[in-house]
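Posted in: Protein Modeling Q&A

I'm a second-year student putting together a small comparison for a lab meeting, and my supervisor asked me to include a predicted structure for Orotate phosphoribosyltransferase. I've never done this before, so apologies if this is the wrong subforum. The sequence is pasted below exactly as I got it from our records. If anyone can share the structure token output, I'd also love a short note on what stands out.
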Amino acid sequence: MTDATHLKATIALSTATVELSQLRPYLLDLCCQVAYQEGDFTLSSGQPSAYYINGKQVTLHPQGAVAVGRLLLSMLPSGTQAVAGLTLGADPMVTAVSVVAAYEQREITALIVRKQAKGHGTQAYIEGPLLPPQSPVVVLEDVVTTGQSALQAVERLQAAGYCVNHILALVDRQQGGAALYAKAGLSFDTIFTIQDLQQRWAVLSETIC
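Accepted answer (user: helix_wrangler)
Welcome! Here is the predicted structure, written out as tokens:
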């Protein structure tokens, strides 16, 4: 068993309690194993790509969800009252952060932003507990490419009266998202960049071969 394999086997049993410094390399390996692929793809933005990252393979993974929740929780600005994101990619992320926070005796509300208003009942764009006006909310995204999805969530949350200044992501493909957020006056941070995944993926591929 290689050192990397041993690390994964060990941490997979304790993602709820292992130190954050060990959790990040575990999550990187998981991203490479289940979310990253190379080939010919067309992204949701319409752009062609030689690789694809399916973030939901990580955020819906039992250990991956805990790891993502803990790492993103540690990155939230002080005073954050809620996390939110555009459905579907952000749904498991906001849930994971909220649940992990509860286990750490913190109260972080989870909000889901619809792509279109609900066609019945309240016809709301935002699902989740109603918070006081100007409550600080951080928007989450699994994979950032152009940045449009998270920005759409920000705009709808701001229109609802919330204070949104930060976006956090699992992976930044570095194809314009960060510049878009900066132009909108939003701070942006990410657990991994595409370079992190590709460098680690290359190492893991050599190990398998």
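A couple of things worth pointing out for your meeting: The domain at 3-208 is CATH 3.40.50.2020 (Rossmann fold). Residues 152 and 174 are 18 Å apart (CA to CA).
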